[in-house]
Amino acid sequence: MPQQSKRFKALVAKNPNPTPLSLEKAVDLLKQYNNTKFDQTVDIAMRLGIDAKQADQLVRGSVVLPHGIGKSLRVVVFAKGNLADDAKAAGADEVGAEDLAKKIKDGWMEFDVCIASPDMMGLVGPLGRVLGPRGLMPSPRAGTVTPEVSRTVKEYKAGKVEFRNDAGGVVHAIVGKISFEGPKLVDNIRSFIDFIMHLKPHAVKGNYVKSITISATMSPGVPVSF
Asked: For 33-181, where are the alpha helices, taking DSSP H only?
């Protein structure tokens, strides 16, 4: 485990025996931890009572948070014709087909989200070896393979976040910036929690949510009661 800085140790000392707090109090405490010069990103981690090895218990998808995430995502779109025009009009940072595929194959990865219209998947499929490990491969389940490219681009530009559980059954997501007003952070976090609750797999028995923790880029985690 990396050695903690004096600053981090001082923050931990503010709440040496963390117990789960209401969401509002957890956000208040998190904001008290903010003593850096940059605008830290706020993250949520939900430990779920799922078996990540079972395909019918995976939790993944995307959700539009009510107040965005505090940064504009760089969005690329694989589309042709009218759909390509729609994607450009919606604010996509790069739109293309064969030319875009070649650019990515050659090593260009300056984007956060990759969207494709269904007819482009024959072209996009071979890029899975490059995009997959980075979590950028378009998929119908995540909503990034869609004929509604214009709407989807606008959603990501407005603050849509993707998520998927890891091997330990934990779902991580960005839910805003530490500079957000408290009520807006609460709104975003509650929206995310509610959405994950809605996705509970039918195969899960017992407690679905085991723990919820929020943290900022350089802060200790704050457990949230639920």
From this structure: 81-90, 98-105, 121-124, 128-131, 149-158
- Residue 216: name the closest of 28, 64, 68 by CA: 28
d(CA 51, CA 166): 10
CA triple 40-15-10, angle to 5 deg: 65
Q: What is the pLDDT of residues 82-99, one digit of tens each?
A: 999 999 999 999 999 999
Helices 182-198 and 23-32, axial angle in degrees (round to 10): 130
pLDDT, tens digit, for every residue of 35-69? 888 999 999 999 999 999 999 999 988 898 999 99
Q: 107 - beta bridge partners?
A: none
Query: What CA–CA distances, in Å, run from 226 to 21, 161, 197?
Result: 9, 22, 11
pTM for the whole structure: 0.75
Rounded to whole angstroms, the Cα distance separating 21 from 213 reads: 10
CB 48 within 8 Å of CB 209: yes
Residue written as token pair 């799922």 = 50
Both tokens of residue 130? 């490059």
